[in-house]
Amino acid sequence: MDIQRVAIVGGGTAGWLAANHLGLTAMAHKSLSVTLIESADIPTIGVGEGTVPAIRKSLKRFGISETEFIKRCDVTFKQSIKFVNWLDKSAHGENNFYHHLFDMPSAMGEALTQKWLAKKHVAYAGTVSPQHAVCEAYKAPKSISDPEYAGALGYAYHLNAAKFAELLAENAKERFRVEHITANVEEVILAESGEIESLITDTKGRLDFDFYIDCSGFASLMIDKALKVPFIDKADQLFVDKAVVVQVPTSPNDVIPPFTISTAHQAGWIWDIALSNRRGIGFVYSSKYMDDETAVSKLDTYLNGKLAEHQFRTIPMTVGYRERSWEKNCVALGLAQGFLEPLEATSILLTDFAASYLASRFPKSVEDLPSMSQRYNHVMSYAWERVVDFIKMHYCLSDRSDSKFWIDNRDTGTMSDELLQRLALWQNFVPNKEDFFSKF
Predict the structure, then answer these.
(1) How far is CA 135 from CA 82, 251, 257, 275, in A?
(2) How far apart are CA 140 and CA 273, in angstroms?
(3) Which residues are registered as beta bridge partners of 322?
(4) How many helices (H) and strands (E) does the chain have?
(5) How far apart are CA 130 and CA 111, in angstroms?
(6) Does the CA dihedral 151-154-160-163 come out positive or negative?
(7) Residue 147's pLDDT is what?
(8) What is each CA distance from 338 to 158, 163, 188, 210, 330, in whole angstroms?
(9) H or E segment at 70?
(10) Residue 91: predicted pLDDT
(11) Residues 357-365: contacts with CB within 8 Å, 24+ apart?
(12) Could you tell me the end-to-end alpha-carbon distance of the chain, in angstroms, rounded to an integer?
């Protein structure tokens, strides 16, 4: 049987990213239709306001103007993440920092790395790339005359997640003819063979499709509630599981950093993202090492005692991912697929990658599902595991010893075998491309 009708359940960044990727595919396969079903009663999480450079490729493919995107979504440039106080203050000084740059090191990167290792008296990022100096000078990665989605240096964006979803929705509906239905999914009907047969909604009744994309967030209506795919918990490796988030208005004259600021504290870290009209701030922490009241107090200190002037909320974070992202005739994306923590903007990265990968290899018939789902699940599991390693590496390489949180993060029992092997290798050799078999 041919797959002709695709339903995406859930909007937000994940749902509408999927709608654009699949909508673009549907334009080349005229028999394929894409419908997004979105609830008007469920607000989006809306805290993922940082991206990585890969998003530029997707936006360009969607036909979205970079100029319009910047104007409509309160966008600012992101060339780096500036990690502040992630090292021991007594050894490295108060407000010590390093940049994780988005530009590639120069062609002499390996030789420059060896030179830096011999002295270590300057910032490593400043040794291998001019972008360090550009960031510290608060300059942009491109000039006003550069073509859209191109610049002198590598870059991504900070953005207003809600406005970004609106722009993606508009593009998917107008450019790719994605149908938009506002309704609540009340029940998922399974066929005798176990695949999803139809959806029961409150306003549109029963809706039948051939293939389903679960973008219903932490609710995971299809992949969890209906198909019962197990969840792989990663709390034993990544300790952070809560965030207190707040938005702070800014004035037009405020300086905008062209990078995310990530400031470590005794049980986690704080993100500080400047958009064109406000700052998005999140106090990320582990509930095992810090209680909620202390977290709120610490965030208040970060805001110079002005937290009470703004609305804030505490968000729990379930750390891990689905054992299988693709089950039967359903693929989970976004928070329904999994979530780790906001460090390095890996959530949007994984969502965009997973949606693009699915769209580029979308099955034409149900006979294709077993082989394609097996390959897809293998790729996604590998990607998730490597991202876990990547995030864990930020913590386990820190020499902070001011709290049990940092000390416990260096326990080798909380690291994967792959990470331990690589860290052992890199004790003696500079990392190079041959050490990696995937971009993840």
Answers:
(1) 9, 21, 8, 16
(2) 15
(3) 231
(4) 13, 21
(5) 15
(6) positive
(7) 97
(8) 22, 23, 20, 24, 15
(9) helix 66-72
(10) 93
(11) 358/18, 358/21, 358/22, 358/213, 358/331, 358/333, 359/21, 359/22, 359/24, 359/25, 360/25, 362/3, 362/22, 362/25, 362/29, 362/32, 363/3, 363/211, 364/2, 364/3, 364/29, 365/1, 365/2, 365/3
(12) 35
Question: Looking at residue 26, what is its pLDDT?
Answer: 95
Give the Å distances, CA to CA, from 346 to 341, 351, 394: 8, 8, 13
Of 30, 60, 71, 78, the active-site residue reads: 78
Instruction: Give dist(CA 423, CA 389) in Å, integer.
Output: 11
pTM exceeds 0.90, yes or no:
yes
Mean pLDDT, the chain, whole residue set:
94
Query: What is the mean predicted confidence (pLDDT) over 173-193?
Result: 97
Convert the pLDDT of each residue in 75-96 to its tens digit: 999 999 999 999 999 999 999 9
Assess whether pLDDT exceeds 60 at residue 48.
no
Active site residue 78: yes
Looking only at the bridges linking them, the beta strands covering 268-274 and 211-214 are: unpaired
Confidence at residue 46, expressed as pLDDT on a 0 to 100 scale: 54
Residue 401, pLDDT > 80, answer yes
Q: What's the token pair of residue 376?
A: 């897809």
Taking the C-alpha atoms of residue 59 and residue 167, their distance in angstroms, rounded to an integer, is: 11
- Count CA atoms within 13 Å of residue 123 on its CB side: 18
- What is the C-alpha to C-alpha distance for residues 401 and 302, in angstroms, rounded to an integer? 21
As a whole number of angstroms, the distance between CA 435 and CA 423 comes to 11
Q: What pLDDT, on a 0 to 100 scale, did the predictor assign at position 43?
A: 67
Instruction: Inform me whether the pLDDT recorded for 370 exceeds 60.
Output: yes
Nearest alpha carbon to residue 249 among 274, 222, 282: 274
Q: How many residues does the chain have?
A: 440
The single residue listed with the structure tokens 């359903």 is: 330
Letter string b/e over residues 112-148, b meaning 16 or more CB atoms within 10 A of that residue's CB: bbeebeeeeeeebbbbbbebbebbbeebbbbeeeeeb
Q: Packing angle between helix 12-28 and helix 161-175, nearest 10 degrees?
A: 20
Dmax (CA) of the chain: 69
Calculate the CA dihedral of residues 372, 373, 379, 381 and round it to 10 degrees.
-170
Q: What pLDDT, on the 0 to 100 scale, is given for residue 367? A: 92
